Records
---
Amino acid sequence: MNKTISIFFFVLGFALRLNAQETIVNGRLNNWDQTQFKVPNKWMVIGSATLDSSKTVGNSRGIKLSNSVSDRTISYALEVGAAYPNVLNGGYPISGTPTSIKINYNSSALGNDTAVVIVGFTKGVDPMPMILQQFYLFADASGSGDNSITVPLTYFHVIPGLVADSAFIYIASSAAAGTPNSSGSISIYNISFPDGKTAPTANLDFESWGGLSVLKPTSWYTSLDAYEEKVGKIAGLQQFALQSTSARTGYAVILKQRPVVMQTGTEILPAWMITQNPSYSVGAMDLPSFNVDKRYMSLRGYWKGSLSAGDRVSVMVNFFDADTLVGSAMFSQNSALSVPANYTLFSENIIWVPGYTSTPQKATVGAFLTDSTFQFASAASSVIYLEDLSLDMNSTKINPVLSNIGITLFPNPSSGDFSIRSTQPIKRISMINTVGQVVYQTQVDGLNEVNCSIPAGESKLLWVVIEGDGFCTTKGLSVQ
């Protein structure tokens, strides 16, 4: 199953000089971290979830879900199953339909938050749960120790008498939307169904735990980090190493899709990496990451590799004044053009929003390997090496490979409608915003001039990707 990912674009360039400044944090990619995680088998966790062994009676192991107001983090736990990540299709098999659920927990450190538990039971792939019940765990007095709650489960389904064969459980450490009310925590020790219908393989007592090891460049989020933070840490993953010995100097980064074998089926992880803002637990192109003190002219880096038919590599930088995006640049190439077998410099000019003449304070850089529509993971055979990413005070030249193709956007800036004129027939047009979302895409029947409209509500910068037979180029469009 491919995980959807939004991405970006293209304009080949060549540099005026090779000694570009390394302003991007760990832009040479020589510093690497190895992070160890321990997670309960059969469970997915999001946010901060750790092993808890403080229970005083019964089974000794539990899972502790923690909140952080400063990081805006709420933690979650979900018993995963064959239809993951579709949580409404059951996480584990059961026999019969239980009538109540019992949870042992400790909420004495929950603070001002309220934890949420959702339990559901399903039949096969029926999308309608016959039981879907939500209840809450409140904060107990400090030092109150273990507690338990038994909640009746109310049956409902359009087909009377239907018997469930699978179930799921979802736990959140806060009922708040977004930022939690406090930086507290709740520990869950075991979950059971008093009428004896619990599946023995579900690990509802949290006694079985697995390990996870991640190797990643320091100060960068990688696609596995995003998988852990946004989708969950799955027990049994093998080490995910982006580190490469095939480098110009020191280390490089490999971008390549990764299959993850789960209980049933395989998840495909798209390859991407984004500079890290330590104030957030996820990487995103619309979050400022590192400080800058100059109005740079170009984004540069070295790359090589191979792209299977229909795949694309993209590297992007966004600049921010406070939290407002004020400028951007993108390098992007698809498989229609040759990929260098040896390290080759790319360089792209930065486009600033209309009227912005000051110096930005922060920037964020991302690198992505996707299919050519910017939407999905690449083919397994595609691999890209990146090294020495940097920002530079010089602008770029136009690559001679594209010198015989003239492409013009007008008017630019535009307040709504604009035209694309090309000396070669156009086959496809895409519009991508500065966080990598494809906001418009259409096939064109070999026209040399196409009239377009900017989608409503878009930001002050858009990238227009124009593709034809043997060429693909990206133009920055300023939106008034």
Note: Residues 13-28+260-478 form one domain.
---
Amino acid sequence: MSTKEAKQGYGQKIASRSEDFPGWYNDVVLQAELADYSPVRGSMVIRPYGYALWENMQARLDVRFKATGVVNAYFPLLIPESLLQKEADHVEGFAPEVAWVTHGGNEELAERLAIRPTSEAIVMHMYSRWVQSYRDLPLLINQWNNVLRWEVHTRLFLRTAEFLWQEGHTVHASDAEATERTLLMLETYRAFIEEDLAIPVIPGVKSESERFPGAKDTYTVEALMGDGRALQSATSHDFADHFTRAFEIEFLDAEGERRFGATTSWGLSTRTIGGIVMVHGDAKGLILPPRVAPVQVVIVPISRKSEDAAAVREFVETVQRSLGTDLRVQADFSEGKTPGWKFNEWELKGAPVRLEIGPRDVAAQSVVVARRDTGEKQSVGLDALSGSLVALMETMQTGLFESARQFRAENTHEVSSVEEMRTVLDEGRGFMVGGWCGGAACEAYVKEQTRATIRVIPFEQGDAAERVCIVCGSRPARRVYIARAY
């Protein structure tokens, strides 16, 4: 191994996933070249491989948004303090996380500018200018951007000071229409996360204490990670007329009456990349869902004799051309690494399928197909290869989802008391499902005693009358999912 490779971390051992999950996670993110630490506190550099993964996710989610009528725009990074101050709950909720610009060059600014922690204030200001009549509604806009929240405790992808996301902001003529849009976007997230990222989620609503600042209701999709902690994977917020009153977003309705509109916002960030790592990864590193993997098929040439190298390379290029239009394919001709080294490297990076091609394969006009998820290998002829791999990608995508769903089922525990919760947390982690009366005191008691929180009140409730609160014993009680979370 060269000095350069040693510095880059190639071939370094990753921590044990079962014994040191946080260390394993960090090692995988760094060594698989998804991201690296930056010199700015709490921020990260997303490396090309990680950014390609984000681009694939972004492309698939953007198509889903546009199918619902959403269009993209862009709003400024800097927000005047006076705009933030227009909505008290919103400002209070984000105050500890806001970073401020106080100088432009050598000049002190007359008004501080916030580096956006989220864009409701600047977006609502612009909407107040654009919305005048019912004919202007609904206004359905999304932006792909970065935000900055001055986080104290950070972790690559999962919680960083600066991160990438999308944030959608819509205005509607009625509260009912806004609620309908909020739920539509939640379903869009559910479908994307389950179908494209192969991560099963629990959709539902947040408790009052967990709502987004200023929201009437916050809806969420919650996922279970490989260490039994929960991850809030996306949220959709129903603001009713909260922001439209604060920012005076009024319109003339069809009867000529002036009315306030109703707004929503919804977002998904690069923290979902962390979710992919933690849900699907194994002791060897990443396992990427085929639909978003930067490289779906990696081809590794094997030639021990120089006289075989030319024939193997020519066949590899033939295979690559035959697959190029159907799949994202990369041939690894990098020098100074053995085939075994490349196998390990691409297993770490989570490429769904590896093709091994040596002199015997050239002679047989076939390739060895190795699956990243199961490790199974089979020989496939060149004529059947393209169709076989396309089908295999769908099989693997479904398999990853089912495996994650099985893991969630095995780590979801019905509990009837806080004592039972402690037992679950002592023996491991996971979702704990129990009854909650809806009282803030009972919710706070659970958090105090266990450091777990109510992650989601699922839409599917069953018979609430038969359920009792795990704290106070009263009924009826809502069915809730409780967990320690990222």
Note: Residues 261 and 373 are 49 Å apart (CA to CA).
---
Amino acid sequence: MSMTSRDRVLAAYNHLEVDRPPIWCGMSKEFQEKAKRELGLDDEQLRVRFGDDFRWARADYTGPQIPFSNPEVHTRTVFGIERKGIGYGHGISVPLKDATLDDVENYAWPDPAWMDVSRLRGVIAQWEGQYAIMGGEWSPFWHDVIDLIGMEDMYILMYEDPALVHTVFGKVVDYYHAVNQRIFEEAGDLMDLFFMGNDFGSQTGALISPDMFGQFIQPHLKRLIDQAHEFGLKAQMHSCGSIPELIPCFIEAGLDGLHALQPDCRDMNAADLKKDFGDRLVLNGGIDSHHTLICGTPEDVKKETLRVLGIMTPGGGYIAGASHDTILEETPVENVLTMFDVIQQFK
């Protein structure tokens, strides 16, 4: 049975038989550049070599270009939060700390028209229906609200001023919903999945209780998922960490796929996740990138990959890949090649 990448992914989302597990390849820019140098490949050739079954078509930001406030800042979110530090970094200001409802209403919220969708159809056309196409904004509304209010203050205000917290979440999700509407109206007919990211877990447990998640987060999550479903798209969300107590909330909100399972977090072992949720949710990831991929030998990687595949592939509904959103620069390219080669050869 020979399948295209797109056929393979859609079959997995319908819990049907596939010729091999679909492959997910999320890479940090630094690892991607290192792998391209070592293998002598360009961006697309590298994804083909790894067997990646997905491609991501994104809108282009064309909004205001505001100079950073100091040389240490390396990025600014669309909500005006400057960030510095390793990787995505951390925010250096909390603009809605101690805000009133009037302050929230009067905040300089971004304009969805800043995201240009005019290139999307042309970008997708290059893949000619071969790959599963992801679209939509990353929509990290949980993180955006934390950046705007402050994490500790947000938790306190959930009890002391819930109306303010609800309003901030609503403003943030209004923006992502409007941008996604523009994206899906422009090219949703060429897409297969809406992919977003919100990290709701730490190494040892969820960052919010299921009850509070249901009050403050789930309605907004459901709103974005429902929007994707209206355009015929599957909805997949990234969430790091230990989140087993929240997964039923994700399912209740209509989520179709969960990425990227971290086996070294509390209660996130592959067998339990497959048993408890594998018939209701596509599970993506679970091959240890925290220890095995970085520190192990190719033989270690082969054994771990085969172990996870043996647990997760029966009954379908599994997408194979590393246990983090992005493979880090310090990861040996040989180990990553071993992981993806084992997946491609698995029957």
Note: The chain has 15 helices and twelve strands.
---
Amino acid sequence: MRVTGDGGVGIEVFVDGPQDGRPVLLMHGWPDTHALWQPQVEALTAAGFRTIAPDLRGFGISEMPEDTDAYRVEHTVADMVAVLDALGIERADVVAHDWGAAAAWGLVAMVPERVERYVAMSVGHPAAFLAAGLEQRMRSWYMLLFQFEGVAEAWLEKFGRLMLASHPGRDEVLERWQDRRALVAGLQWYRANANPKTVLRDRVDLPPVRCPVLGIWSSRDVALTESQMTGSMDCVQGPWRYERVEGVGHWMQIEAPGVVNPILLDYLR
């Protein structure tokens, strides 16, 4: 189904599972689409949940605004509220990964009345990310590269296969990047939300998170440190739980659904 998001941006949404099932909103990150969640959709719907998996703005078949500011995470927060409204859902569990998780931290903080509980995968609270220190800055080197318009696009066209070596769906991502609009739109997320000036900030101004939160981090994630996830506990006033997935890379939900799915089902039940 198509939902009109913030600023009139069209958001494509894929809904599965029983109409009366408990709703779970699944938010993917870069460079993915709703299809990232297919193993989780199958497990959740089999357990009686109703899954809502949008292509976030700029990804998949959702619209790709040209303006960089249109990719600021607050617009995605508003998009997700529009999705829930369109489906008549008052409150949902939220499971999010990568940039989807970054936006979902904003959703649970700014619109707490719409969220039952939250599962953050890979990416911790923005304040914890900021406090994670030099190691996290070093792992985030590519965020600086992605700021350079034209240069980043050319670099990914030449070295994207190497950079995405650990992505289980690399060939599909590279095929989507043949449409240069898709390549640029993904980079816009970094340009709108990860400007180098942000590393100089002393704090992140978000209301405290009061809903229950589960943080999941995988031990072979080359882009994100464990401390930026475990440190998120200090930003959560509600119940906090942490799970570490051993021997798995950044895209854990594809690499190890046999490990991830039981964690999700146990928590969401």
Note: The beta strands are 2-4, 10-16, 23-27, 50-54, 92-97, 115-121, 213-218, 240-245.
